[in-house]
Specification:
Elements: H1 9-23, H2 30-37, H3 41-48, H4 51-74, H5 80-90, H6 103-111, H7 119-136, H8 149-170, H9 175-191
C-alpha cells in the first residue's frame, strides 16, 4: 500500500505553476521549484517522477483552476457575447497586479515550432476556441449563420486576440489601452448581430 502524500497538493502545484509561468520550463531549476513548493528535490521526484511530471501536473492544475475557473466565472454557458467581453476584460485584473503571463501562451512559445504541439497547450487552446465558438453561437449572436463558418472564423480571430493580449500584458503594455482595444472589438462584434 502506497504512502499518502503529506503535503497540500494544490499549494505545491500552485507554487510550481507560478515558477513555470514566470521562468518557463527550461529555466526553472529544481532549486526554484523547491523554494516555490516547499518540497525538497527528493520529494518532488518521489511525488511527480521528475521535473516534467511536476510540470505536467502544474499545467493541468493551471488549466483547471485558472483557465476553466475564469471561463466559468466570466463566460458561462448562456452568457454569449457579453460573457466573452467579460472574459477578455478579466485578463486585465491579475491577482496582486502580477504580470506572470499565461502559462498556455508562454509554453506555446517555448515548446512551439515542432510538429507535435505540447498536449496541454493544444488542449487549452482548444478549450478557448470551443468556448468562443459556443458563446458566439448563442442567440442573438451568429445563430443566423447556418453553416457556422462566420462563428468559426470569429472564434479563431478571438483566440489570436486573447493570446495577443496576454503577450502584451506580460510585456508591460498599458492596461487602459488594452481595455479600449477589447471594448472596440466587442462593440464591433455587437454591430454584426
Amino acid at each position: 500500500m502506497g504512502r499518502s502524500r503529506e503535503f497540500d497538493e494544490a499549494a505545491v502545484l500552485t507554487g510550481a505553476m507560478h515558477i513555470f509561468r514566470k521562468q518557463g520550463y527550461q529555466a526553472a531549476s529544481i532549486r526554484d521549484l523547491e523554494e516555490a513548493t516547499g518540497l525538497k528535490g527528493g520529494s518532488i521526484y518521489h511525488a511527480f517522477g521528475d521535473k516534467a511530471g511536476l510540470f505536467d501536473a502544474a499545467f493541468g492544475h493551471y488549466n483547471r483552476t485558472v483557465l476553466e475557473g475564469r471561463i466559468e466565472r466570466f463566460a458561462p454557458p448562456g452568457s454569449g457575447l457579453r460573457g466573452l467581453r467579460e472574459l477578455f476584460l478579466s485578463l486585465l485584473h491579475e491577482p496582486d497586479d502580477a504580470s506572470l503571463g499565461c502559462l498556455i501562451t508562454n509554453m506555446a512559445v517555448e515548446f512551439g515550432g515542432g510538429v507535435n504541439p505540447h498536449p496541454r497547450v493544444e488542449a487549452a487552446l482548444g478549450l478557448l476556441r470551443t468556448t468562443f465558438r459556443l458563446r458566439l453561437g448563442e442567440p442573438p449572436t451568429f445563430a443566423r449563420d447556418a453553416d457556422g463558418a462566420k462563428a468559426d472564423r470569429t472564434a479563431i480571430r478571438l483566440l489570436a486576440f486573447y493570446q495577443g493580449h496576454l503577450v502584451l500584458i506580460r510585456g508591460g503594455e498599458g492596461k487602459a489601452a488594452l481595455r479600449l482595444a477589447i471594448e472596440d472589438e466587442f462593440n464591433q462584434l455587437e454591430t454584426l448581430l
